[in-house]
Amino acid sequence: MSGQHEISSLTSEEKRALLAGLLDASANVTSNLTLEQRRLWLLIQLDEKRPWQTSVAVRLTGRTDAAVLQQALSTAVQRHEVLRTTFRTVDGHPLATVRPVASLRLPVVQVDPDRLDAELARIAASETRRRFDLAQGPLVRASLLRLGEEDHVLLLTVHQLVADRRSVRLFTDEVLTGYAHLLGGSGEEAAGPAAEPQALAAAQRAWLTGDDAEKDIEYWRDRTAGLNALELPTDRPRPPVKTIDADVASVAVPRELRDRLEAFTSGTGRRLSRLLLAGCTAVLSRHAEQRTFAVGVPVPPSWQEGAEGLVGPLENTLPVRFDLDAGESLSTLLGRTDSALDEALEHARLPFEQIVEAAHPPRDLSRTPLFQVLFGFEEEWSSRELPGVTAHRLDLPVTWTPHDIDLYAVRRDGELSLRAHFNTSLFDRATVEQFLDRTLLLLDSAVTDPDRPLSDLSLLSDKDRERLEAWNATATGRTGPRLLHELVAEAAASRPDAPALTSSTAELSYASMEARAEALAARLAGLGAGPESLVGVLADRSVHTMVALLGVLKTGGAYVPLDPSYPADRIASIAEEAGIRVLVGDQGALDALGGKAAGLERVAVPTADPDGPVTRPAVEIEPDNLAYVIYTSGSTGRPKGVAVEHRQITHSTLARSILEEPGLPERYLVLAPFTFDASGGGLYWTLMRGGTVVVPSEAEVLDPRLLAALIRDKDVTHVDGVPSQYSVLLETEPEPFPSVRTTVLAGEVLPPSLVEAHRRRSPGVALFNEYGPTEATVWASVHPVTAEDAESGRVPIGRPIPNTRVHLLDKRLNPVPPGVPGELYIGGGGVVRGYVKRPGMTGGSFLPDPFSEEPGARMYRTGDLARYRQDGSIEFLGRADTQVKIRGFRIELTEIENVLLRHPLVAETSVIAREDQPGVPRLVAYVVPVVGRVVTKEALIKHVLAQVPDYMVPSAFVTLERMPLTPNGKIDTAALPAPDLGIEDFVEPGTQLEAEIAETFCSLLGVSKVSAVADFFELGGNSLLVARLTAQLSRTHDVTLPVEQIFRVPTVAGVAAAIEEDRRQRDNVDSEVLYAQQLEELHAEITLPEEIAPGDLPHSEWFAPRHALVTGATGYLGAFLAVELILRTDALVHCLVRAENEEEAWERMEATLRKYHAWDESYRSRMRMVVGDLARPRLGLGEEEFAAAAAELDVIYHSGAVVNFTYPYEAARPANVEGTKEVLRLATTTTLKSVHFVSSVDVFMGTGAERPFTEEDLDSRPIRIPTGYPRSKWLAERIVYLARDRGIPVTVQRPWMITGHTQTGASHHTDYLYVYLRGFLDLGVLPLYNDVINAVPVDFTAQAIVYTSLREENFGKNFNITNPAPTTMTQCYQWLRSFGYDLNVIDEEEARQRALGVDEDHVLFPMTPLLRVASMRHAALDPELQKQIDPQDECRVLTEALEGSGISCPPVTEEWAHACFRFLVDGGYLPAPEDVVVPQGSVN
What we know:
Layout: H1 12-26, H2 35-46, E1 53-62, H3 66-79, E2 85-90, E3 93-98, E4 108-110, H4 116-129, E5 140-148, E6 151-159, H5 165-182, H6 197-208, H7 211-223, E7 246-252, H8 255-268, H9 272-288, E8 292-299, E9 316-323, H10 330-345, H11 352-359, E10 373-380, E11 383-386, E12 389-394, E13 405-412, E14 415-423, H12 429-448, H13 462-471, H14 484-494, E15 499-502, E16 507-509, H15 510-526, E17 534-538, H16 543-554, E18 558-562, H17 568-578, E19 582-585, H18 587-592, E20 601-604, E21 626-632, E22 640-645, H19 646-654, E23 667-670, H20 679-688, E24 692-694, H21 698-702, H22 704-713, E25 718-721, H23 723-732, E26 742-745, H24 752-761, E27 766-771, E28 781-784, E29 799-800, E30 804-809, E31 822-828, E32 834-835, H25 839-845, E33 846-848, E34 858-868, E35 874-879, E36 883-886, E37 889-892, H26 893-901, E38 906-917, E39 920-929, H27 937-945, E40 956-959, H28 992-1005, H29 1023-1037, H30 1043-1048, H31 1052-1067, H32 1071-1084, E41 1107-1111, H33 1116-1128, E42 1132-1137, H34 1142-1155, E43 1167-1171, H35 1183-1192, E44 1195-1198, H36 1209-1227, ...
Parallel strand pairs: 4-5, 10-13, 15-24, 17-18, 17-19, 19-20, 23-24, 23-25, 25-26, 26-27, 39-40, 41-42, 41-44, 42-43, 44-45, 45-46, 46-51, 47-50, 48-53
Antiparallel strand pairs: 1-6, 1-12, 2-3, 5-6, 7-14, 8-9, 11-12, 13-14, 15-16, 21-22, 22-32, 27-28, 28-29, 30-31, 31-34, 33-34, 34-35, 36-37, 38-39, 49-52
Helix pairs in contact: 1-2, 3-5, 7-11, 8-12, 9-10, 9-12, 15-16, 19-20, 22-23, 23-24, 23-29, 28-29, 28-31, 33-40, 36-38, 41-46
């Protein structure tokens, strides 16, 4: 196999092992590279695509002599042997070769002076992409950009193998000095030859064998122990594999501050560079909320004599560790900085890679090891005078950086600035600029009072303070004190006969609800209920529960909702603490208690209207009286009761007016249980507005299909739930609910992917993301979700609701600036009274509000971390303590730990929330048993379940001998192992169906494998995951399983048996009826909005287009279509490309064409990038962009599609079906454009069509109903017919297998034939089968499409682009042999079984779903059948259309096949024949 590897395929350990092996082995071979060169050389082998060069630009104003400048350049290169060095591989090891003379050109390039910045940006990006030939050299490039007669820019680019950043500046200065000397100026003559790299390499190797090196290794091993990554808050989620795309932000240090900094350093004997480093470190600490971390500091090779004049990759980077104290002042931090740097410099000779080896940090491909931010101090000149010329240093655009942020303090001719190169995958420019500004702000304050704790110094600018005040200006006019039940009574009085509550089994009018509540209130008052008394309510999911809640409120008492499923001990413990004497509930729920909860008076909720008027004593209720108490998880191990007054819940309810723009809550579905405070939000809002509350049953909440039916049956207008629950609903019910206008999600983090799913399915439905703890009365902030949130890393929790303030504060209760994490505090009208009978806990969580002018105002400390975005919306970042939210339930981890510690066999425990599968958090308990004892998982589950609700029971238990500890002696939660689930007593799935169900289990549970008999719930399953499971089974296996079926048989084998039974029952149904049903469903999707029609639109230029759009332009065919349009027409080709921006789109387009050997620089002026997405409305374009494209375009070549035969139809539908509709919409906007739709031969293959495949319209009654990708293309083609019949000019192009270019062999390596070929070659075998290979060259395909599209007589026709002279698989194997491969061809079934056994990282693994179903053969591709078919019957229309054009399809030949193989081998996709090892005797 090829020796090249993608860096993403190697773990950190593997990379370290490769590097260490290379370095160790090199000691015994002739290797003349320095250690840094060898490290870089290996990294280049691992990742050739990364830019490995540094560029610098100098503007030359005056008359520049280009010939003299080139001579100065050559002289400098000649002086430094390293700049004449090239690198090649000998016996697997790098060898440096020094050329006697390096020929270096200085081309002059004309540049528009008015577009200098744009041109520099373009050239910098081009230089980043353009690679050096390491073996040929030179590894220095130079060019002279000509802006005018006396205005030029010298651009130098040097490979890192021969010069680091410092050396490039040194080399540039030497070139300019040489130029001055050659012109007889003041420049000094260049010095003699510099030190030879080989001498440096030999000195390094000798040093590494000595004691000093070993001492350095020990130092760095100790210094990096326990060092954690610097977790700066980012604007986007950190990609799982590190990226390097970058930009630059700069701020100038004001002259006054610069003078003060310099005065401070001169007065204290400090260095300016270290003062700036200390300031940056302090701000990094504040931003990341970390005190211990490392900053990378580049250092010159001071150990080498004359190092200051040496060019080469000589700088080392040291991870300088900082351990800051809470009360750190500038004075102490400067002392700490000096000590840390001085100590590090004493051990600076050990190369960074060997420091990493000594530290052996945890594997993390998402960031650089040991440090993530680099700080450097650079002294530069801003301008210098040369003979006849003034040189000005230019700052080039930055396009890449190896770290999160590279921060440079730059002093130029006395001016000082901070310049940050930042990773654009992580940060926005504004974020980094604010970091730089805050560094200067902190330093400004700190040098005034250097002994003051830095944490006392604000990072807020005056502008920041103004913004924070504006964002919290939420005060609105109050309507006066109100009581909760009075809000409901007013609506009941105005709409007595309207339904107040409804469910699948019952409905209550407002009048009945009020009357029954009055009757209950009278009974409760007689039992002593009144203001400040607490009444327990068994709150099941029924309309009667609302009667109970209102009945309690009318007495002046406060209700305490209790789940009837709670353990009896929990109910008793809550009743005892709250002083509950009366328990209200449904008669059945009360009876189910039996002898539990003894001593409580039990009152049944009335289920019928009273016979007559009800009288009860008058009671005086104040807004300050309690309305209800909600019990939540508590850190002491006991639940805590949150006491909510009428004042707070009426505030919360009245504030909901801000959600009413999409419509009033007419029929509100409340998914939260009544025991969860979130239920109160929609409940009282709806009843206040006279709407109807829709109450689902427990079964409907658990089963998304039943819930969807309830929504449709009740015409629900508002859906309220947690994101995970709503996600399952969308997965199960792909069609939108016509009645729903608003969706409110709260209780857990809202993933951006769910926003996208919501907007795709229900674009007209308003979506709100709410946030708020129980202690702030249901909600405190809300965010109206937008389309942009689907693209963001986090969906904000929005802004404060009316009369509420949200403060983000540091540990000293000072406001933090935008972008910086702070703990979230809530003030205003929703802050509750406190915790029942917990004065200490109340005092610790409810603090005096220093930001309020209201006497006695308090604010609640949430324990949540958040930060402000630049627009004032708030991002939730996680918990600051041990509280988590799982499936919307707030859980105090210490409560579960305390429960576990009560078990007599548990000595230590730690409970954490893990997210081993993204989006699926679960509780995992780690337990250390008492010495000499064993504790079982079953015993622990039983123990925990008896004391807490089921949602608080960990889904996995891991037994450990001891807890991993941090250096400080605390439990190291990061080192706790992932639970190994479903492995014990492992039983392999016995059938193909069981194997597929096991894969579904694994996907949902986040485990690598699962036994056929393992219990879904013991593996971590829960009711929400059951809902996901049934939804996925329904899609994948076309089966409808009741949710309760999973509860009955929660194993792979059990579910498989249930599916088989379902299939047996359905097999009894008449197959014709089933076919008719499926056909009806298929035809129901052949729709095209009525507005997509020609009307009387003017025609664009169809046959001499000025502007052509190609969708899928970075795809294989799309790229060659774009080229063909450039060659055959005068059109400007617009390329629709998925990308972040136009620059990235250009990079993708150019990279695609270069990959296929099809790029020409002249194409740049003939192309325009259109950043969009087929799968999104308007092709992902904004309204203005879409309108502009509609006005400009003449023709559309629609070749874009999701092509993946393993994807379900739902994955392909957005791009392939809906995207086609959007293309047709574009074609009929402003002007009428022609559309040339690229279909596929799979519209025949995927429907069981019989040969010959003619060029007629597709049969409306396919033999087999298509699925997956073929279904999407079949539907798209039928939709194009609708467009054609309405008068839109179209052609349909159906290519067969598109492959190599006739001249270059350039092939699409993801074609399934090549995937199979590569995968089976890797296994050392090839399957014996002989299907027809009907291959058409990509250039012929593009030529045929463009030629036929430009002739009016072809409109309305279908063209099969096929090869009249195809070949077979057997012939292909012969050509593989003649190319040089030894082949071991084995029985097809044996080969298939081997392929099914590959690991997940094998190239064949994605194909296993196809390989499982049956043979790799296809009946339509049988060679015997091919002999019976006249090839012209399948492409007659195309042949006639191409007659006289000179365009024809060449036969498949050995020469062409070899060209394709050669392209794939040279590109590293196929192994070279000599790298394929076939066992001796196996070749056949």
